[in-house]
Write a structure and sequence with these properties.
By secondary structure, the chain is mainly beta. Helices cover 5% and strands 38% of the residues. β5 and β6 form a beta hairpin.
């Protein structure tokens, strides 16, 4: 295997991962990559390209060796970027290796960005239809411009639930917002619908009630949470499920 493209790379950097617990195999590591120069800090997820990119961030790849002809290309997804920095998620080698390499500077490289290959479950909600191979759904749901919109009322639920299920100690990362909220309703956003089996699905809801492990708060007039949700718009939420102990960490 080799990088794509396999030639034309002008620079590479060695990145050493601190993994004393030996749990890095297939782990998705978040890196903030800067186009300019600076001091790398892999332990904090910060890497610099030192102005060596031809078309930042398109000509960036990660591999298992320092030779683009022999390196296994690691899966990556770019969460967001501008002309100076980009947030990458990189799937680490499945053999648990603590060293990877970042390649930059290739005028023939197109942007490589694949969430499905990087994560155990991923959806960017492209197109205008919900992916029925990934989700089951109930209620008023629409998809547009990489957003899924769930419209629920006190008496009518709206939700999507992943068809895949997951084992202990997985983490959900989602970006969501509320556009309107009725007082007296229970707000549910994203979480696990987990029972005693130890595995269950990712759920996102807009409804009056809530099952296990969802983020839920009852809204009343004057609620500070209501003000925060409407004031700040999009929120990135992370939840770790530890189903054996019936615990969800947010």
């Amino acid at each position: 295997m080799s990088l794509t493209p396999s030639s034309g790379w002008s620079h590479y950097k060695r990145i050493v991962i601190s993994d004393n617990a030996n749990v890095s195999a297939d782990y998705q590591m978040k890196l903030t990559v800067y186009a300019g120069s600076g001091t790398d800090d892999p332990s904090d997820g910060i890497i610099y390209c030192d102005n060596n990119c031809s078309n930042f961030p398109d000509d960036i790849r990660f591999g298992t060796t320092n030779d683009p002809l022999t390196a296994d290309q690691l899966s990556q997804w770019i969460e967001e970027y501008d002309s100076t920095s980009a947030i990458f998620w990189v799937k680490l080698p499945n053999d648990g290796s603590d060293t990877i390499y970042m390649f930059v500077g290739n005028s023939t490289a197109n942007q490589y960005n694949n969430g499905d290959d990087t994560f155990i479950f991923f959806d960017h909600f492209d197109g205008t239809n919900l992916d029925s191979e990934k989700w089951t759904s109930v209620g008023d749901i629409s998809v547009s411009e990489s957003e899924i919109i769930l419209t629920g009322t006190e008496s009518n639920n709206a939700y999507v639930k992943s068809k895949d299920t997951f084992s202990y100690n997985t983490r959900i990362r989602a970006k969501w917002k509320y556009t309107s909220i009725d007082t007296g309703s229970w707000l549910s956003s994203v979480g696990y619908n987990a029972f005693a089996t130890g595995t269950d699905a990712i759920v996102s809801r807009s409804l009056s009630g809530h099952p296990y492990y969802e983020v839920a708060t009852k809204i009343s007039f004057g609620s500070s949470l209501l003000l925060i949700l409407l004031l700040f718009g999009w929120i990135i939420w992370e939840i770790k499920g530890s189903f054996k102990n019936k615990v969800a960490e947010a």
